[in-house]
Each structure stands twice: as C-alpha cells, then as structure tokens.
Amino acid sequence: MAVGRDLESRVEGDPLVLLVEDNEFHAQLIQQSIERIGALVEHVTTCAAALEALTNRNFELVMLDVDLPDGNGFEVYEWLRGRSTSPLVIFVTADDRAEHAVQAVKAGAADYIVKRPSYFAEVARTVVRVLDEAAASRQLQSSDATSTPDSPIDFLGHSPEMVEVRVAIQRLSDSALPVFVYGEFGTGKTLVSQLLHNGRRRRAAPFLVVDYGLTRLIDEIPSASTPIRSDTARSSDPRVSFEAARAGTLVLKKVDLASDEAQTILTELIDADLSQAEQGRMTTRVVVDSRLDLGVEATEGRFNQDLWIRLAGQQIRICPLRQRIEDISSIISAELRRLADEAGASPLTLTDDAHARLRSHSWPGNTRELLATVRQLAADHSDRDSVDQFDVDAALSRTRDKYTPRAQYEEYARLALRAALDANDWNNAATARALGVTRSAIRRRRQSLDLVD
Fold this sequence. Notes:
This protein has 19 helices and 15 strands. The protein is of the alpha/beta class. The strands form 4 sheets. Strands 1-3-2-4-7-8 form a 6-stranded mixed β-sheet, with helices on both faces. It has a 5-stranded parallel β-sheet with strand order 10-11-12-9-13, sandwiched between helices. Helix 10 links the parallel strand 11 and strand 12.
C-alpha cells in the first residue's frame, strides 16, 4: 500500500480515492493527477489488497485497473455491487479491454478511461466530473422531494452553463440578498429556489410560494405555465406573504403580473429586510422565478424598474436543454439507473442512433420533457435490454403533445385551480373570495378543466 499524503492529514471534505493499479509508473502519474485536485489517494496493486482496503475504509471513488496480478478489476467491481453501499468506480483499461469497461459503465460504473498516449491528462478532469456530479446528486436528493416537482437529476451534467448554476446556488444559498431565477418551462426554476432555501441558515424556516398569475388565470387571462404546489401561499398582499415567510424563503412567481402597487410594496419590503440583515437579523429571503427576462421587461416599461434593480445583482439563468446537449446523456443515464434501482433490474441501454435522436430533439419542455420521455421508454420496454431510434420516436410521439404551449397552459391552470380549491375545501364561493373573482368564473374554469369533487 502507498499513500501520497498520510491518512491522518486528511481534511474533512477531502475525497478519499482508492487506486488499484499494478504498474508503478502509471500509478505514480495517476496518483499525482488526483492529488492535485485535493483528493487523498491510497494505492494498492492487487485484488486482495483492494478488497481489504474497501472492507476497512470508506472510499468515495475507486480507480480500478482491469488486469491485476491475482485477478481482474471486474471481480472487484462485482464484489462492490453486492454491498449495500459502495463507492463510485472509474475503470482504467487498456485498448483491448475497453469494450468490457463500457459494459461495466452500462451496469452502473461511473466512467472509464482508456490507457492511450497522454491519457493522464484525462484523469483529473474525469475524477472532478464524477465527484462533482455525485456531490450534486447527493445535495439535490437531500432536498424535500415531497415538496419539489422537479427531479434532482435535472441538474446533472457538466456543461459550463450547468456548472455555473450549481456554483451560483452554493454561493447564494446563505445570502440575504434577493435572487432572480430565469429559465424556460421545465428547466428546474422551482428546484433552484428550494436548493437556495436549503442552505444551513434557512433550511428549517418557512418556504412559501406566491403565484401572481392565479387571479388572472381564473379570469381566463393567459399567463405563464409553471405549475404551483399545494403549499403555495395565496395572498396577493406582499406584506402578508413576507410575514408568513419570516426568516425563510419567499418565492414569487409571475411577479410581472403583480399590480404596480404590489411591486412597489415588494421593493420597499426588500429594502427594509436588507437593512435588518445588515444588523445581523434573520430576514425573509426573496427569490423571483420567471420565464420572462425581467430586465427587458423593466427597460420596456412593463416591470417596476426599482424592483428590477434589487434583483439584477444576483441572477441564476438556467439554460434550455437544447443549448447544452452535452448534458443530455448524463441525465438519461442517471434516470435509467434510478429507474432500474427502483425495479431491481439492470438499466435499459440506448443504441447510438437512439442517443443521437434524443440529442437532436428540440425539447420544448426541457429536462421535464426529457425525463418524461426516458420514463416512457423504460415503461414501454421493461422486457428488453435496449431501445433504438424507432423506440425513441414512438416515445416522443406519446409525450410531445404534453409540452405544447397550449398543453403547458392547461396543465398550469388545472394545478393552480386545484391548489386554490384545496385551500378552500372545494367551495366555489370561498375560492372565489380568496382569489378576488366571481363565483361564475370558478364554475366555468372547473368545467373547462374537468375539476369535479
């Protein structure tokens, strides 16, 4: 066994990596590459030594050579798969064994590296990516899954745009400053709001959502289409909402539809809370979630300029999926593994033409549509090992109609009205009073949306 840094010198948070490689020259270069990123590396040269190390210590990652003196890396990998918890595995393999490593990745290994000339340059980059995606997945899975409609898998991927989103969430999670979250339908705006709330300062405090599209929606004026949740606060008075979310997070959806008076009050409340925060007091953190670029809306006179100035300094812009197609494969693989784990089966695999078809789709519903399509494929072909382009086309034909602008609006309308009815015991008169509309408007919308008791 060789360790570049002493185990006692490990700092909390440093990843612990087991390197299983019998070639000392390769091992030294791989170890140096990994230690440059701040990880602690333990090096062994045999299967037996690897099993002993894995039995005695908890590693986050195993760099596993295929050909070893007393066996092969696949035997170690199969042993790991039989344990209740196991580290991530990256195979390091010669050219003639690459096909086997690919199969291992399809079965759940994190990645593989082929020993080609100058492959050492890939090592640190691959390790960072694998550890980063695993950390992001753990963080997102620690969110309250029952209160957020988006999957943690939404934010997997290593495009520069998605890395920037994750960095921004980490940087802003414990800040008192208001944040503007901007993105299309299905990109995960509500999930970003939840993650911002889950920082150490506000995690246990209230998390409330106010949707200013509700009243206009019930009056049948089209609005944006992100569904609200049943725990959404329904008062249009910003002062009531601020008090209800005291010391927690207040998420404002479709705030461009708020009245001029409400936008002015919001600006004043944000200023007052920021003054309190400067004195060290816990205040209400505001997150504005919008499909519209409110900077453009403010410039063109459709949104309060003063309120925009408060939001402009802290922005998280979520890129549409079609502009970061390099993330699609990571999201697909993670979702297929999750579905397989739930079913106790091996993950469904996609042929190259199936992957190409998914990457070429425009994804108007973004990651929400992609995940729905992957789930459709898994449900339709649970009796098969793989699917091809024709299977993908069939799945897309069954999901794409749900993501047209009209379908998005109808889904939003249904969920929004259901939330309002739930809060008022499905009483038309009480719901109408809460939303400031007529009882006949509630009846019409319930009929058109097929919402019956």
